[in-house]
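retry 2 of 3: previous attempt timed out while embedding zinc ion. Reduced batch size to 1 and resubmitted. Inputs unchanged:
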Amino acid sequence: MKHDLVLKGGKLVTANETFIADIGIKGGKIATLGESLDGYDVINADEKLVMPGGIEPHCHIAQESGMGVMTSDDYETGSISAAFGGNSSFVPFAAQKKGESISDTIDEYDRRAETKSVIDYSYHLILTDPNQDVLNELPYAFERGITSFKVFMTYATRVTDAQLLDILTVARRHGGLTMVHAENHDMLSWMSNSLTQAGYTEPRYHAPARPGIAEEEAINRAISLSKLANAPLMIVHVSTPTGAELVAKARMDGAYVFSETCPQYIFLTREDLNKPKLEGAKYICSPPLRDVATQEALWRHIAGGTFSVVSSDHAPYRFDESGKFFNGHNVDFRGFANGMPGIEMRLPLMFSEGVLKGRISINQFVALSSTNAARLYGMLPRKGTLAIGADADIAIWDPSETRIAGEMHDAMDYNPFEGMKIKGWPTTVLNRGQRVIDDGKLHVKPGDGNFIYRGRTDLSGLTGSSLPETEPKTNFGAEIFK
Ligand code: DUC
Ligand code: ZN
Ligand code: ZN
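retry 2 succeeded.
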């Protein structure tokens, strides 16, 4: 067979194996894995690593924050930056506004994405107003191929425990995944008020205002709620060793609990918040940066399998009045936009510091950067692996290229990882067989990315946590989860 495109001679890496082969692509899909394949077009991948394109599973693009600040990146700049960082698809958030129906939220984000994205995309739906009408409408999101939902345990948009149980239950019934931002709201408010009333207002006090114990308490509670509903839960941006241990324990028990951490928690510390002249505001993100001991513990949980994915939590707000200083300069730490960029840095950082420094294997890198996200968010086997019939979403990496991190392709005016020496960069990214990035250049146009219609979360390997009080055979016949 003559293929549209052949990748020749690369070292192929999946979540499970590493082997030398050509990849033959036809009609945007992987048609053949073999030797001496024939193609109208050829990319020489000798000396290179050929991996599934990254799937960025947590990023904020063309989204207003809880404080009403629009991210600097729209679907064009955000997707371009993601692609230069080795990603062939991404899943930002579609954030429901108070009182808005789910169909209106999805329609609005379709308008923001469809003529702009250069790579394939989907959305997680952020539920800020889970009233009964919205719960009744949730199955409609599944019809639209949106099968994951994020809720907050803090901020004005926080859900109560009962609301979280409702969402977990509906999501479980349809095979979806509930994602949770786990921090105890009252602990954060109390600490913030105590600090600001005593005059501790600079950006660095963002860290003590959000102590690790607030995350640990909320993670523990969220896991308990997930166990009660026997429903899958993804704890996003875990930043504490104890939080990770709670997840590891829940997983050992077979519960449907998953988690992610982010590069900022393993490469930066709260000392970065203490930079002079409000520079510390660049490092305000939530949960906040922690310390060196935390970095080491989180690496162990990455290597040991506690975390299914490492996401960037790219939340880009420029260091000017459009972003960090939307409230002006004269505000306390609560008044700065909350988040930092990193969509283009996630995979190079994990490759350079993870794989090349021997902290994780190259196969773990693929699992953490692509395959597990595809599995959890209903995209496997179409995305996230190098298999016959899969979309030809592929990243070719040069493991020897070394660069100092500097300006990225996003719409930001700073890079929190600037100055780091990074070895190993993606040189070519394909999305459905099309060159997105090659030779350092963009080869597609805004709008070439397609919406990814997603399916169910894969819960294989976990037994769940059915409790005697919720099981009809041990609770005197009461059917709770119909
Ligand atoms: N949570 C996120 O996931 N991103 C930015 C800020 C936040 O609270
Ligand atoms: Zn969050
Ligand atoms: Zn986020």
